[in-house]
Amino acid sequence: MKYTEVNKKKVIFADMHSDTVPYSMQSMYDRLKEEGFDISVYCRNMSEIGTIELIRFIKTFMKEYAAAGYVYICSYFLPVSSCNKRAETKVIQLWHSGGLLKKMGYDTKDDIPKNYKGNVTANYDLVTVSSEECVPVWEKALKLPEGITKATGLARTDIYYNDEWNYEKREEFYSIYPEAKGKRVVLYAPSFTGNAASPECVGLDEVRKVFENLTENYYLIIKPHPHLREKYPEYFKGRAMTLSTEDILPVTGVLITDYSSVLFDYSLYRKPFILFTPDIEEYKKTRGFYVDIEKFPAPIAKTGSELERILKEKTYFDYSEQDYEDFCSKYMGACKGCSVDNILKEVEQL
User: Fold this and answer.
1) Is the domain of 301 the same as that of 268?
2) Rounded distance, CA 53 to CA 56, Å?
3) pTM, 2 dp
4) Range 277-301 average pLDDT
5) Which residues contact 258 (CB under 8 A, 6 or more apart)?
6) 342 and 317 share a domain?
7) According to DSSP H, which parts of the chain are helical?
8) What is the spatial distance between Cα 9 and Cα 36, in angstroms, rounded to a whole number?
9) What angle do CA 126, 261, 34 make, to 5 degrees?
10) Is residue 2 part of a domain?
């Protein structure tokens, strides 16, 4: 077999934001590895490498891309879209978030790299989303051909249905944070404003101050978006780095976030959350939303004092089980613990 012939047993996992296989692709990676596929990993945080290494990375990737049967990505990966792909090679976009919230892709000015003139989603053969509600939004925002966006559920969500995994993560959490036992764990997991190159986060220090004033039985864990590491290094030290945000969800009693899609992952647990959005009016103007967040089953705080009142009065309990069920069904309805199976069935038909 010539090297340039497409090998259907050859699979590439690629990402430009992480040095390891991202969480959003791990379940698919594990499955295909078990099934004996020849897997190559091209995952590198591009913000941490120089020009020469970047060129070497792309050159090596493109050589394997030309012979691979399948390429899996979970965010924009420009090398995939920057050439005329061979028809036999299939590109599957697993995407890294579920639900509908902030605008993305070509619907907003900050999501697509300004210096890239091509179509960032060219060459995609399959795009997986979390519910039927997402399909038309993805098609428009990412300029996708009709029919390639499928509500298969997200591969990243299957693990949340694994009882053994949930038990292990709870045990691991309390082994690291034994003082949290008997308290309500509150996870503050904010997103960022701007773009990945120059991210900001309004509210980090304010949330910490709120919890310093609370006497209630809460235990706060702060997990900012990874893009904020350089801007806010003090929040990426010590025990906070031991577990990922996803690892903490099984033990979380209340989630606080702003515009992060983590709330959709968390909704699979049907537990309460709070939206802390001190910059919401500016965010509406600069980024915008696909949905009205005031209709979410969650209280909204725009100031530290409002957040403190919600936590003291526990108004996050004002929503019913049906409210959470309806919310989850609308935005995460295809994520039922078998998304990897669903995706692979679609891949077989490509």
Assistant:
1) yes
2) 5
3) 0.92
4) 93
5) 190, 191, 203, 275, 276, 277, 279
6) no
7) 23-34, 51-65, 78-81, 135-141, 163-176, 204-213, 245-248, 262-267, 280-286, 304-313, 321-332, 339-348
8) 8
9) 50
10) no
Report the sign of the C-alpha dihedral through residues 269, 14, 260, 176, in that order. positive
Are 225 and 157 within 8 A, CB to CB?
no
Q: What is the pLDDT of residues 174-218, one digit of tens each?
A: 999 999 999 999 999 988 665 555 566 677 788 888 988 887 799
Cα distance between residue 337 and residue 341, in whole Å? 9
169 and 142, same domain (yes or no) = no
Name the token pair of 21. 């296989």
Rounded distance between C-alpha atoms, residue 104 and residue 127, angstroms:
15
Q: 66: which 2 tokens? A: 């030309």
* DSSP 8-state class, residue 93: E
Residue 108 has which token pair? Answer: 């907003």
Lowest mean pLDDT among 118-127, 204-213, 262-271: 204-213
d(CA 29, CA 42): 12
Considering the domain architecture, whether residues 104 and 165 belong to the same structural domain is answered as: no
Kindly state whether residues 144 and 270 are assigned to the same domain: no
Q: Are the beta carbons of 316 and 126 closer than 8 angstroms?
A: no
Instruction: Say if residue 72 is in the same domain as residue 201.
Output: no
Nearest to 72 by CA among 349, 348, 347: 347
In this structure, what CATH number is given to the domain that contains residue 78? 3.40.50.11820
Whole-number Å distance between alpha carbons of 186 and 198: 27
Q: Residue 220: which of 232, 208, 228, 205 has the closest Cα?
A: 208
Give the confidence band of 226 by pLDDT, cuts at 50, 70, 90: low
57 and 173 fall within a common domain:
no
- Strand 273-276: give its sheet, edge to edge: 218-222, 184-188, 254-257, 273-276, 300-301
Give me the number of domains the chain comprises: 2
Say how many C-beta atoms besides its own lie within 10 A of residue 38's C-beta.
Answer: 14
pLDDT in tens, 244-266: 999 999 999 999 999 899 999 99
Pairing of strands 273-276, 184-188: unpaired
> What domain range includes position 36?
7-157+335-348
Which pLDDT value is given to residue 216? 77
Residues 186 and 274 occupy one common structural domain: yes
Residue among 101, 92, 66 nearest 152 (CA)? 92
